[in-house]
Amino acid sequence: MVYFIGAGPGDVDLITVKGRKIVEKADIVIYAGSLVSKEHMDFCKKEVKIYNSAHMTLEEVISVIVKAEVENKITVRLHTGDPSIYGAIKEQMDELGKRNIAYEVVPGVSSFTAAASAIKREFTLPGVSQTVILTRIEGRTPVPENEDIEKLASIGASMAIFLSVGMIEKVVEKLKKGYKRNVPIAIIERASWEDERSIIGTLEDITDKVKKAGITKCAQILVGDFIDSNYSKSLLYDKNFTHMYREGKKK
């Protein structure tokens, strides 16, 4: 059996209880060594075989899994954050499907939610934004034309931009054209790790702040009015609001 598990954004304790229990019984662990904390390996049994996928090709990963299946072993494919977001798991699952190898996906905490926690913000504020867009700028991996950051920013929703801080000038240029105003923006480097850093600014000054801090990778870009704005309180806890669990007080 193969398990694709989200290890979380960095902090070793942000893996799910289910994910940790499977890691503890795994015979084989293939982990994304460039991003996943090695501390997860401390929870493995002594006889586990560990592979760092940072040095492996897709074919090599599948070869290890196939061999483990023949030997009736449990394989854990440990991905950073949540494996469904920029996890490159579809191509792996397709290869397993071709070989009739059973697998399961265990979700994890994404870096975009860890980043919001780091700056103590809520993406979905009443009267401000009820939509969160997860995206990235085009680099060596292209982005569909209709998903260009400028077009997405024109919606005015909260945004979490992955894998793009190394091109911060280009990101900011597109955001300015899209939002058409000076909105708040935050850069969170290595969210939930011990050396986490956060910078909050606006589209006008964030590029200089990022360059001064020397942040070039492993950072989330969060942008939108949710970072700094007035908002309406939730009706859920309004004393005058009635719902199926509570009768509201009459005004």
TrEMBL record:
Pathway: Cofactor biosynthesis; adenosylcobalamin biosynthesis
InterPro entries in the cross-refs: 4pyrrol_Mease, 4pyrrol_Methylase_sf, 4pyrrole_Mease_sub1, 4pyrrole_Mease_sub2, Cbl_synth_CobM/CibF, Siro_Cobalamin_biosynth, Uropor_MeTrfase_CS
Matching Pfam families: TP_methylase
Domain Tetrapyrrole methylase: 1-206
Example GO BP: methylation
Keywords, comma-separated and alphabetical: Cobalamin biosynthesis, Methyltransferase, S-adenosyl-L-methionine, Transferase
GO molecular function: precorrin-4 C11-methyltransferase activity
Record family assignment: Belongs to the precorrin methyltransferase family.
NCBIfam families tied to this protein: cobM_cbiF
PANTHER family xref list: COBALT-PRECORRIN-4 C(11)-METHYLTRANSFERASE (PTHR45790:SF4), SIROHEME SYNTHASE-RELATED (PTHR45790)
Full protein name: Precorrin-4 methylase cbiF
Organism: Clostridium acetobutylicum (strain ATCC 824 / DSM 792 / JCM 1419 / IAM 19013 / LMG 5710 / NBRC 13948 / NRRL B-527 / VKM B-1787 / 2291 / W)
